């Protein structure tokens, strides 16, 4: 297992490019199962989740290849398989996105109930309700969803749940309805840019979906979807993560390939906190700070609100910002596993129902911490970058699900961060109780972890 060793305190500076979005790439790759021609997807990030889905799609009869330029080519070569095994599906939430395409095109699907980040209850009742409304016969047995249907038929579907709509649920129903006979309307559809990206991909293949980006979708079913070439929308969560990393270190960072229109709520909140964000060209933003940052209250909401996937990273920023801040998550009200780990670094955070009250500490101190999920990992990295001294962020396999070589991007910006195998001899000396720190160890200008550049570095290459 790998860990990050970070020496905090270096302001990030320089330019990095944002990848295509994980949460758009995964449902789009799954939707390729519903088409009868080849698709070429550009800007698909090289992530563990993407590799897992490639494996699953291969098992489902798809030819999946990344060519030399990085484009992902997908084509169905065998349309008989319809089962997605627990071993693959359990690691990744987005695997549930194969349900709609399989059902629509092959008439049956048998899929393990999905895993994904441990961020609270993640039922799929709305997915199943929507597919049943389209005519599928669905049962759950031994941990698997078993769905069967003849040709699906259009229906009126309401996708509102206790916490708003469902993102992957909207994706599933949209793909299934694109091939159903007749018209489907979806009310309370998710409006996330990743859902719009999937809709655009489907429309390019011949689907007839209107209302994308609004809660009301109209879908006229078609007989067939052909293949197409599609560039994945930039990852707004990766962009927000790097913006917050820049802000927390008092850095000066330029991001390329970022759609500021997908980040309005985050940009407004960061400005309120005192982060300076300037548009410096097409899809380019520059992030700087001047003077003290200010405490602020944040509520994570469905799009266009502040994304729940940025909540943990904002918590790290506010934990270093003097004053009282309150963060509430209205999408996953229990998504606060990072709070206890941030406390190890000196953060003062109290949980109250769906909220966390943060008494900003000014500066955190390095510590050994454990990542519990994808964005919690990102939050701990951010905290480590700003903290005084060394931090060890363990269990970063969560982070690798959703960020492509984050440590390389951060190093490109000057951060002191290394990926090493998590072993007793790689654990930072400064974090061992029996090892007194020297001033030189803490302030060396060319710090590099002694075991870096060995096994783990090669693995991440
Ligand atoms: C692969 C992917 O795109 N993952 C994203 C997707 O997850 P995912 O699609 O799983 O999240 P949902 O939008 O479905 O969940 C939102 C809320 O609805 C509830 N719910 C969901 C489905 C359902 O059938 N019944 C139900 O009650 C959930 O418990 C949660 O409280 O959207 C989340 C919310 O923006 C993000 O955090 C995830 O990064
Ligand atoms: C929660 C997330 O991912 P997933 O839905 O794939 O678990 C995320 O991207 O933050």
TrEMBL record:
Annotated ranges, domain Enolpyruvate transferase: 7-410
Main location per the UniProt record: cytoplasm
Location of region: Disordered: 438-461
Any single Gene Ontology cellular-component annotation: cytoplasm
Catalytic machinery residues: 117 (proton donor)
EC code(s) of this entry: 2.5.1.7
Pfam families in the cross-refs: EPSP_synthase
Modified residues (2-(S-cysteinyl)pyruvic acid O-phosphothioketal): 117
Gene3D superfamilies per record: Enolpyruvate transferase domain
Binding site for phosphoenolpyruvate: 22-23
Pathway in which the depicted protein is active: Cell wall biogenesis; peptidoglycan biosynthesis
Entry GO MF terms: UDP-N-acetylglucosamine 1-carboxyvinyltransferase activity
Positions of UDP-N-acetyl-alpha-D-glucosamine binding: 93, 122-126, 309, 331
NCBIfam families: murA (TIGR01072), PRK09369.1 (NF006873)
Family listed: Belongs to the EPSP synthase family. MurA subfamily.
Protein name: UDP-N-acetylglucosamine 1-carboxyvinyltransferase
Organism per entry: Symmachiella macrocystis
Gene symbol of the encoding locus: murA
